[in-house]
Inverse folding.
């Protein structure tokens, strides 16, 4: 069951063992990779970002997030970094609308994001740069990414 995840960790081991890196969830962390349609239902240990939240420890709690590792922020030097979950917990989120996956339920991401950005704005003298990142692009011209255009229409 863990073959997909272990393959990824073996591939990044040279870099991950030499330097710290931050992770954010994507659509592949929400679903089963090895449990096919003919192999029965997806086991609970592989549903709703469980492998991602089990293997990573991001600074969610220190940034006011109660969403395990799903969204968080931190300051590094003159930069305030914000990691968002582009898969769940906002209106029309792609993995919450999926028929078989139906992931999410980690909390009010948008309320947390608004509060975090307000705190960051008040601290621009110390951290003038702001970088927000997530798995999916906030906007793209690619037709396969129409979900983001619907979810983030004003970006």
């Amino acid at each position: 069951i863990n073959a997909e995840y272990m393959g990824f960790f073996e591939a990044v081991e040279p870099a991950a063992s030499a330097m710290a890196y931050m992770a954010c969830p994507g659509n592949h962390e929400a679903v089963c990779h090895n449990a096919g349609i003919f192999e029965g239902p997806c086991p609970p240990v592989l549903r709703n970002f469980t492998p991602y939240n089990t293997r990573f420890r991001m600074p969610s709690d220190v940034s006011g997030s109660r969403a395990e590792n799903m969204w968080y922020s931190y300051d590094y030097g003159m930069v305030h970094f914000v990691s968002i979950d582009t898969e769940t917990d906002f209106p029309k989120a792609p993995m919450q609308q999926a028929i078989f996956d139906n992931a999410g339920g980690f909390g009010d991401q948008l309320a947390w994001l608004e509060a975090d950005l307000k705190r960051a704005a008040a601290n621009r003298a110390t951290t003038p740069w702001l970088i927000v990142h997530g798995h999916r692009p906030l906007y793209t011209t690619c037709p396969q990414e129409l979900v983001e255009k619907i979810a983030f229409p004003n970006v």
Remarks:
- The chain is about 30% helix and 10% strand.
- The first strand starts at residue 72 and ends at 76.
